[in-house]
Design a protein that fits this description.
Length: about 525
């Protein structure tokens, strides 16, 4: 039996942050248990290697058939290995809008208003622009300006500016509105995952990779360890101080349910003894529904499948291996922005990601030629889904149902967002690139636009909410991230978000991990 003071289940964005911060106290021993590998190869350190991910780094989940998407199954990539999804994502550093966190506080998550979380965001960050009122300069998470931006991305920003949309150099600063180039979690031309930021070598920090946690173990109501398997052998890891779950919006509710915490009838149906009946476990799934417009285009710098493109790609990879510079530092989604599609909304309600390649079926479809794409997502969807168990085996993928576009308000926002996006894509600076729309329709035709959205929309990879925090008795965990109904069990990932934030979720998840470490340290004193 292995032992530690704190056992962290999952080495992703939140798990790495909570483990790394706790391990700064030399009096505490911390063990991180991660089913994937260490993610130290070029596929995760080279920023432009996103298309080269394999089953070793991506769980590649699928949803159940979605009625709002014409019965299609959605794709749900999730990072596997240390760093979690920060090892395979587009590296965009976005925190959300201040009103998102003020809304959390109004829902009973005291201590999570924007003024409360801003110091924690600053603490996590080492921004290459330096510290200021919004940014940190000495944190473990490196945030950088892009070093090699393609002309098409600049054209996108210019096109928006020509429509009087403000150009915003800092989406995490004084205002979120506008368009611009994204900052990225990179350092010196390499992807900077949460694992690289926080899981530094320490004598009191133990990393167990290739190990799957099967359930949390309890003595009465107190979590005292986990049962896990590695190389076909079953093990127990004791946690003298407690257990932290950080498996993400899919993995954490799955493990809670396998451990007897969740919707009672669902657990009984799978032969699992109910320890704590909690209907909110696996409920309230929220995700950013996203529509992608794709254009064929031969403008310089755009990526694609051709002999010329392959030769350029080989040269770009060689440059990156030699100097960590050049086109392979790209996040692909180089530019984007935040727009309000109605004048009276308190914050931007759609987000744009401009991508320097054609994206069909999440980039899995092999498209000949070169081009660009633009995503638009609904930032605060009303649709709510679920995560459920397929069976009692932790190795079985969870049953994921985001219920995309089941609330009519989401389709209305999406349609406004698509039209706003096309106004930018049809502005002179973009038309000058000579792009050819792969899915041309009359965007003024409501029926045609709705059909196109339902035929093509899917996630932009931001699931949250399946183990929400709150002050109410139904909440899965308290605002101090302690699971209700048991002792010495905490959660440190995006599943605790009571509402989806207006932006990419990696930076907020790391902030949650930082705060969880602080709560645990106080609880252990």
């Amino acid at each position: 039996m292995e032992e530690a003071d704190i056992v962290v289940v999952g080495g992703g964005s939140g798990g790495a942050a909570v483990a790394g911060r706790l391990a700064q106290d030399p009096r505490l021993s911390v063990t991180v248990i991660e089913p994937g590998g260490r993610n130290t190869g070029w596929r995760t350190t080279m920023p432009g290697a996103i298309p080269f991910q394999t089953a070793a780094t991506n769980w590649a989940y699928q949803t159940v058939p979605q009625s709002g998407l014409n019965g299609r199954r959605g794709f749900q990539p999730r990072g596997r290995g240390l760093g979690g999804s920060s090892a395979i994502n587009a590296m965009l550093y976005i925190r959300g809008h201040p009103t998102d966190y003020d809304a959390w506080a109004s829902l009973g998550c005291m201590g999570w208003a924007y003024d409360d979380v801003l110091p924690w965001f600053r603490r996590t960050e080492s921004n290459t622009r330096g510290a200021d009122a919004w940014h940190g300069g000495e944190g473990p998470l490196w945030v950088s300006d892009q070093s090699h931006v393609q002309p098409a991305s600049h054209a996108f920003v210019a096109a928006a500016a020509s429509l009087q949309i403000p150009v915003n150099a800092d989406f995490n600063g004084a205002t979120q509105d506008g368009v611009g180039l994204y900052q990225v979690t990179q350092k010196d031309g390499e992807r900077w995952t949460s694992a690289r930021a926080y899981l530094t070598r320490r004598p009191n920090l133990h990393l167990l990779t290739g190990t799957t946690v099967e359930r949390v173990l309890f003595d009465g109501d107190r979590a005292w360890g986990v049962a896990c398997s590695r190389d076909g052998q079953r093990h127990v890891v004791r946690a003298r101080g407690g257990v932290v779950l950080a498996g993400g919006a899919f993995g954490t509710p799955q493990l809670l349910m396998l451990s007897g915490i969740g919707p009672a009838r669902h657990l009984v149906d799978h032969g699992i003894a109910v320890k704590v009946a909690r209907a909110a476990v696996g409920a309230d799934l929220q995700d950013h529904i996203d529509y992608t417009a794709s254009f064929d285009c031969d403008a310089p710098g755009l990526l694609g499948r051709s002999l010329k493109g392959q030769l350029a790609g080989v040269a770009a990879m060689a440059q990156w291996f030699r100097r960590r510079t050049g086109p392979m530092t790209t996040p692909f989604a180089e530019a984007g922005g935040f727009l309000r599609t109605l004048p009276d909304v308190p914050a931007p309600d759609v987000q744009l990601h401009f991508v320097i390649s054609v994206v069909e079926d999440h980039g899995r479809a092999k498209v000949a030629g070169h081009g660009y794409s633009c995503h638009v997502c609904v930032l605060r969807p009303e649709s709510r889904g679920t995560v459920r168990l397929a069976d009692g085996d932790v190795l079985s993928a969870p049953v994921i149902d985001p219920a995309f576009l089941t609330d009519p308000a989401d389709m209305a926002t999406m349609m406004r967002g698509v039209r706003a996006m096309y106004r930018i894509l049809e502005a002179p600076a973009m038309r000058a690139l000579g792009g050819r729309d792969r899915n041309p329709i009359d965007h003024a035709d409501d029926d045609a636009l709705e059909r196109l959205i339902r035929a093509r929309a899917d996630t932009v990879y931001h699931p949250v909410g399946t183990a929400r925090m709150g002050s109410d008795a139904d909440a899965v965990c308290t605002p101090r991230l302690a699971v209700r109904g048991v002792d010495r069990l905490w959660i440190a990932d995006a599943s605790v978000m009571p509402r989806l934030i207006g932006g990419n979720t990696n930076a907020p998840t790391i902030m949650i991990g930082e705060r969880c470490a602080d709560f645990i340290a106080a609880d252990l004193r």
